[in-house]
């Protein structure tokens, strides 16, 4: 019973909730960047390189064949076009994360650099001042 209580408190900690939120948002962001790269960025680049579709770029090691039973044996290929696209995805995601972290660091520096508001006299100083005024 104590195990489940500990597990529940672990799951309900703020850090775990924040981590879960970050993973979900990160996954969605990754899909957006993948779509951006695949559907928006790569077609113009492929057009500039002579109407190349990067997802079709591959090096065929063995052509597709039909075996003795008449079943189709798929080709064996190295799909380097997909790899190029994933590298570009990674670079874009890395750049975006870099920019977010840079903005976060700059906001922290501004918070640290902001001077603390001037504080008034302490309670002891005020009481001493009142005492001195009463003596006069």
UniProtKB/TrEMBL annotation:
Purpose: Channel that opens in response to stretch forces in the membrane lipid bilayer. May participate in the regulation of osmotic pressure changes within the cell.
GO cellular component: plasma membrane
Record note on quaternary structure: Homopentamer.
Record's subcellular location: Cell membrane; Membrane
Name of the gene: mscL
Record protein name field: Large-conductance mechanosensitive channel
Family statement drawn from the similarity comment of this UniProt entry: Belongs to the MscL family.
Transmembrane segments: 12-33, 83-101
Protein's organism: Formosa agariphila (strain DSM 15362 / KCTC 12365 / LMG 23005 / KMM 3901 / M-2Alg 35-1)
Chief site of localization: membrane
Gene Ontology molecular function: mechanosensitive monoatomic ion channel activity
Membrane-protein topology: Multi-pass membrane protein
Keywords: Cell membrane, Ion channel, Ion transport, Membrane, Transmembrane, Transmembrane helix, Transport
């Amino acid at each position: 019973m104590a195990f489940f209580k500990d597990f529940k408190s672990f799951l309900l900690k703020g850090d775990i909730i924040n981590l879960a939120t970050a993973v979900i948002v990160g996954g969605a962001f990754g899909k957006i960047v993948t779509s951006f790269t695949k559907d928006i960025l790569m077609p113009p680049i492929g057009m500039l390189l002579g109407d190349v579709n990067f997802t079709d770029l591959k090096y065929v090691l063995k052509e597709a064949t039909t075996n003795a039973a008449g079943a189709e044996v798929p080709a064996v290929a190295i799909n380097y076009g997909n790899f190029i696209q994933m590298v570009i995805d990674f670079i874009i995601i890395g750049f975006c994360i870099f920019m977010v972290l840079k903005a976060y660091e700059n906001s922290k520096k501004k918070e640290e650099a902001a001077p603390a508001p001037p504080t008034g006299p302490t309670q002891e100083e005020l009481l001493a001042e009142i005492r001195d005024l009463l003596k006069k």
